[in-house]
Amino acid sequence: MSASNFDTIREIKDPAILNTLESLDPPPPPKVNCFRIKEAAEKAFFILSLCLTASLIISASLTLVHAAAPIALVALTVSSIALGVLLFLKGWQLITPHLPRPIRLMANNVQSVFLGFLSILAQMVVAPIDLTKANPKTRKECNPHQTPILMIHGYLGSSNNWIYHRHILKNAGFDNLFTINLGGPFQSIDDYSKAVLQMVIEIQKLTDRKDLKIFVHSMGGLVGEKFIQDYAESIGCEVTHFVSMGTPFDGTYAAYLPLGLSESANQMKPFSDFVTELKKNASEKEVETRYLHMHSEVDFVIWPRESAKHGGSKNATSQVLNATGHVPFLFSDTAANSAIEFFST
């Protein structure tokens, strides 16, 4: 609802009419302070820098005392090197955006590899968690004024992939959050879309709403688009917003890695019949769904990288995250902020 509409509502004096109008289209949920990886890293960097600086000053002072010189010299050397590394990394972070594109791209690739390693470790830690257990189970747990959001994971993933983004969205005021476990990697995307169909039917019964927002990562974007094209209309589901992160809408050469043993991977190969038909149908069909496709220049899973820029829909926009790799999308504050802003409009 636009600002002018809210001004019109405020001019109405009848409380009953006012409450009814506000319940039809509530304002976007407020952003709430919560744990953020980037903020935590910045604080840790600051504290570590202070500690190393203090150690450097103390050890440098102790070197003036002959008896303590050997120990102080070691502490001085270690502190100097560590602090130098931290300052170099901080300086590199500040100057990287202003470097020539080839050098900047190289730096972003290095960062992507490092963050990708950390992200994979994080996924291993949360692997035992089944996030679908956190889905609302009763109507009382749902917000009747909010459109449900379904989060669909990618290839080899599961519901726990959304543990960070769900945390951010929940603290931003989104209550009707649902995740899904699609199943093993040997099924087809068609099978996965049927699983989404069953989940959406359950969401509709639980929330008594026909509208839906979809948040996807990687292969989940193809699954979500397949659901929209084949099943949404048949159950009266209106997908209003669709946010994707690193989805290979044109396929990816990484899909050859399973050596043909995975049907869903075969469907994600570049120029496969599946992606060709899916994109063709998306470009021909007029839909009300608004799309936001986030992609990256340093995504080592999506080849060609242009594949993640668009899904064929005429009602789509794209956003590039320069230094975010494929798995790090799942822990990106920038991606979370973009999704929150997009879902709130």
Write the layout of secondary structure elements.
Blueprint: H1 3-11, H2 15-24, H3 37-62, H4 69-95, H5 101-125, E1 149-152, H6 163-171, E2 177-179, H7 189-207, E3 211-217, H8 220-232, E4 238-245, H9 263-267, H10 273-284, E5 290-295, E6 316-320, H11 333-343
Parallel strand pairs: 1-2, 1-3, 3-4, 4-5, 5-6
Give a structural overview.
- The protein has helices at residues 3-11, 15-24, 37-62, 69-95, 101-125, 163-171, 189-207, 220-232, 263-267, 273-284, 333-343, and strands spanning 149-152, 177-179, 211-217, 238-245, 290-295, 316-320.
- Strands 2-1-3-4-5-6 form a six-stranded parallel beta sheet, with helices on both faces.
- The chain has eleven helices and six strands.
- It is an alpha/beta fold and 345 residues long.
- The protein has two domains: 37-98; 131-343, Alpha/Beta hydrolase fold, catalytic domain (Rossmann fold).
- The longest helix has 27 residues, at 69-95.
Q: How large is the radius of gyration? A: 24 Å
Read across the widest sheet, the strand sequence of neighbours is 2-1-3-4-5-6
Quote the distance from N terminus to C terminus.
Answer: 8 Å
Strand content range: 5-15%
**How does the major sheet shape up?**
6 strands, parallel
What's the CATH architecture of the largest domain? Answer: 3-Layer(aba) Sandwich
What would CATH call the homologous superfamily of the largest domain?
Alpha/Beta hydrolase fold, catalytic domain
Q: What would the average pLDDT be, to the nearest integer?
A: 86
Oligomer classification: single chain
CATH class of the largest domain: Alpha Beta
Helix content: 40-55%
Could you say which overall geometry the principal axes of the C-alpha atoms support?
A: elongated
Number of separate helices: 11
> H/E element string?
HHHHHEHEHEHEHHEEH
How many structural domains does the protein architecture include? 2
User: How many strands in all?
Assistant: 6
